[in-house]
Amino acid sequence: MSEHVESLRDRVAAAVSSAIGSAWPELTDADPVVRRSEHADFQSNGALALSRHVAARPAEFAAELAGHLGPGGGTETELLRDVQVSGPGFLNLSVTDHVLWEQVAARLAAPRLGVPRGEAGRRTVIDYSAPNIAKDLHVGHLRSTVIGDSLARVLAHLGADVIRQNHLGDWGTPFGMLIQYLDEHPDATWHRAELADGASAVSAPNQLYRDARAAFDADPEFADRSRTRVVALQSGDDATVAAWRDIVAESERGFGEIYARLGILLTPADSAGESFYNSRLDAVVRDLRDAGLAEDSDGAVVVFSASATGPDGRPIPLILRKRDGGYGYDTTDLATIRYRLEELRAGRILYVVDARQALHFRLVFETARRASWLADTVDVEHVAFGTVLDADGRPFRTRAGDTVGLTALLDAAVERARTVVGEKNPELDTAELDRIAETAGVGAVKYAELSTSRVKDYAFDVDRMVSFSGDTGVYLQYAHTRIRSILRGAGDDGVSVDAAAGMHPAERALAIALDGFGDALTEVAATLEPHRLCTYLYDTARAFTDFYEACPVLTAPPPAHGNRLALCRLTAATLQQGLGLLGIEAPERM
Ligand code: ARG
Fold this sequence. Notes:
Bound molecules: arginine
Structural class: alpha/beta
Distance between the termini: 32 Å
Number of helices: 20
Number of strands: 13
Radius of gyration: 28 Å
C-alpha cells in the first residue's frame, strides 16, 4: 500500500510550475501560488507577481501561461480540464473528473490519507497543561491542556519528534505552609482514599491548600513556622521532603484522573515540574553573570531587558535571585529553556500558556538569545491563548469569585449532552446513553476550546457547545456516525472506484474537500492554530451533507454506487482521523 499520496493541489501547482518553467526558463523555480478557489477547483495567483519579471502585463502573462496548460495546450490534458484567465491575472483551474476519482481511490488505499510527513525529524518540545500542585486545574489550564495536546498530536502525526513537558508548579513558598499545616493537623483528611465516596482526588489537596492558607493568613506565628519550613524543604530535610513528595504525588494522581477523562496524552513521565530545575539554578545565575548580562539591583540579581521598558521608561528586569536569596519563576524558566536546548536538543520549543504571560516569555527568550543558549535556527514560540469568559462575557468565576473547577464544568457539559442525545435517540439504553453522553460532552468542551482562534478570549457556553447543529464537536461526531451507518447499510458492497465515471458537482466538491486534509494539517503545524483543522473538518462534513442530499448512495446503480461508497468511506476516515488529531473521539453511534 502506498504510504503517501501527493495532494491534487500539489499536482496542479507542479503542472503550473512546469508550464512557467518551460515557457520562461528564467522563472523555473517560481511559486505559482495555487489555492482552492470559489470559482473553479483551484486558482493560481502567481501570474500577478511573476509578470513583472518578464515585463509583461499580468493578464497577458496569464493568458500566455494558460496556453501552455490544459486541454489543447501543454501535456497536462489528463489533469486539467479547463483553464481560464480571470480578474487582473488569476488563472482559474479545473481538474478532470477522472483524476479526481483516481485521487479518491489513492487516498482510500493509503493509511495516512495523503498526509505528508512535513515535520519529519524536527525535535519539538511542547510545554502544556502545567497546573499547580495542591490546586485545582482551572479553565485556563484546561485551555492549555486541550490546545497543547492537539498540537502534540498533529505535529507527531506530521513526523515531528515530540517531547511533551508538563511544567508543574511543584515548588515554592506555599509548600512550607502546606507541610507545616499537615504537621500540626495530623488528622487533616486530604488523601482521596480517606475521603467519602464520590469526593474528587483533584479537589482534596486543594481543600488542604485552602485550610492551610486560612491558617497562614489568620495566625502570624503559623506563618513564621511555615517560612522556617520552606527553608527545611530547600535544604533537603528528610521528613519535610517526604511530606512534599506525598503532596505532589497525591495531586498528580488527581491531575492524571482529569487527563484520563479528557483523553490527554500526558503521563507522569512527561512531568518536569519547577522542582526538577532546582539543581540547575545556581549555574544559570553564575553563567549569566559571567556573560555580563546579570547585575545586582537593590540586593537582588537581575537581567535588564535590552528591548522591553516599563511605563517609567526603564528596562524591565527578569529577577534571577530575590533579595532574600530565593529563586522564582523567572530563574526556573531560564533553567528550563536552557535544559530544553542543551539537553533535550530541541529544534522547536512551544509554550502553550495564557497570553497574560507574554512579557515573561519575551524576556526569557530574549535573555536565552543574548546568552547564546538560543540560536536563530531554533524556533521558540509562546503559543498564547486568551481568557475564558462566561456566557455573558465576564471572566469565568463562581458566584463566590473562585475559579470554577474543571470537573464541575465537564459534568455540566456531559449532563447537557445526555439530554440532547437522549432526545434525539430515545431508544438508547441507559448504559449506552451514559457512554455516549460522556464522549459527546467531553468532545464538545474540547472542540469549543479548539475551534476558536486561540488568541481570542472565548466564552464558555455549555448549551451552545453541545448543540447538534453548527460548528460543534457534537455535530462532527454525529456526521461521522451517520456515515458509519450508511456504510453499515452497504454491508459488503464493494467500494471499488471507477475513474471513468462522470462526477456530480456535489461529488466533485466533496472530493476536493477531502484532498485538502494534508494541507489543513500542514497549516496547523505552521500557525499552531488547531482551529484551522476544526474549520476544515466542519467544511468537509458540510460538503458531505450536500453530497448526501444530492446523490443517493445505497440505491444508486453501478458505477455510482461503488464510487459514492468510496466517498463515504474516505469522508468517515478523514473525520475520524481529524477528530483524533484534535484529541476527540469519533464513536460508531450516537
Ligand atoms: N504553572 C503555571 C501557571 O499555572 C504555568 C507554567 C507554564 N510553563 C512555563 N514554562 N512557565 O500559570
